[in-house]
């Protein structure tokens, strides 16, 4: 019975229970949106948005306001601005995003150097503090998850067309540009709300890794969407439990579990490809 006592001690702590719920919701939400972001080649956009979020947090701290409340409108405005620059500029998208997030990161570091009253640490901003999430944070993430699922279900046909074939979507009368902007704004809000739990440097992993793992083993689009959320939420819970048992940082532990999940999906995919190849030759 004693071999279970460390595990029981971890999961009975109120802060750990909030962390597990928060990790499950954040991971599922990141995986769901990541499934579309990966196919639309917006992976680097989510990374740039996460890095640039540090500037929004810095402004909130510098102004003495709630950083999360400042970050949400900042992330929305940043997403709209970057989308406009990508459409109007002749520069490659990845180069433009690199310029934007590097510059905003530099401004954020300068802004943080001017702050003398912030009680938090730079490590919490960079890597998150999912163990410190409140029930209010969880409620906000849950509302976002429900809203995202509802929006994607209502517009699923349009989302699939825009994701897989934007030109064909236009032929069917689907406003691909409107759906693109709506998805980018939704992604921006989700990133802004999840930063507190996940951190600036790790937020893109929550979006990209579960979706990539799901894509390797899924043959149907519906399976791909569901499995992305399951992998995201499941890896978050396992990573948090590992963090609680080993006293290691929670955010990095979750990403490490996600990485091993991706490796398992990759090996499964390679094995399936070899078996199909042998079956074709038989």
TrEMBL record:
It is found in: Cell membrane; Membrane. GO terms for biological process: transmembrane transport. The chain crosses the membrane at residues 20-42, 54-79, 99-118, 130-154, 181-209, 221-242, 248-268. Keywords: Membrane, Transmembrane, Transmembrane helix, Transport. Coiled coil: none annotated. Pfam families: ABC-3 (PF00950). It is a multi-pass membrane protein. It comes from the Bacteria. InterPro entries: ABC_BtuC-like, ABC_TroCD. Belongs to the ABC-3 integral membrane protein family. This is ABC-type Mn2+/Zn2+ transport system, permease component. It comes from Cyanobium gracile (strain ATCC 27147 / PCC 6307).
């Amino acid at each position: 019975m004693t071999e279970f006592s460390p595990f029981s001690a971890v999961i009975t702590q109120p802060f750990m229970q909030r962390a597990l719920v928060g990790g499950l919701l954040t991971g599922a939400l990141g995986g769901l949106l990541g499934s579309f972001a990966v196919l639309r080649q917006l992976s680097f956009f989510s990374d740039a948005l996460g890095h640039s979020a540090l500037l929004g947090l810095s402004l909130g701290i510098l102004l003495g306001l709630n950083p999360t409340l400042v970050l949400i409108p900042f992330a929305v405005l940043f997403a709209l601005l970057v989308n406009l620059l990508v459409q109007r500029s002749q520069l490659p998208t990845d180069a433009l995003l690199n310029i934007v997030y590097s510059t905003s990161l530099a401004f954020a570091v300068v802004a943080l150097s001017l702050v003398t009253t912030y009680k938090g640490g730079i490590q919490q901003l960079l890597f998150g503090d999912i163990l410190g999430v409140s029930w209010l944070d969880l409620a906000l993430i849950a509302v976002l998850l429900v809203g995202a699922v509802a929006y994607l279900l209502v517009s699923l046909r349009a989302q699939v067309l825009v994701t897989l074939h934007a030109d064909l979507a236009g032929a069917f009368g689907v406003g691909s540009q409107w759906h693109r902007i709506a998805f980018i704004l939704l992604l921006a809000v989700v990133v802004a709300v999840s930063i507190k739990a996940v951190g600036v440097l790790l937020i893109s992993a929550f979006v990209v890794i579960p979706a990539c793992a799901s894509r390797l083993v899924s043959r149907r689009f519906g399976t791909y969407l569901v499995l992305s959320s399951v992998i995201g939420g499941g890896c978050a819970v396992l990573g948090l439990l590992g963090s609680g048992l080993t006293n290691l940082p929670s955010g990095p532990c979750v990403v490490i579990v996600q990485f091993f999940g991706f490796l398992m999906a990759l090996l499964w995919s390679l094995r399936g490809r070899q078996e199909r190849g042998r079956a074709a030759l038989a």
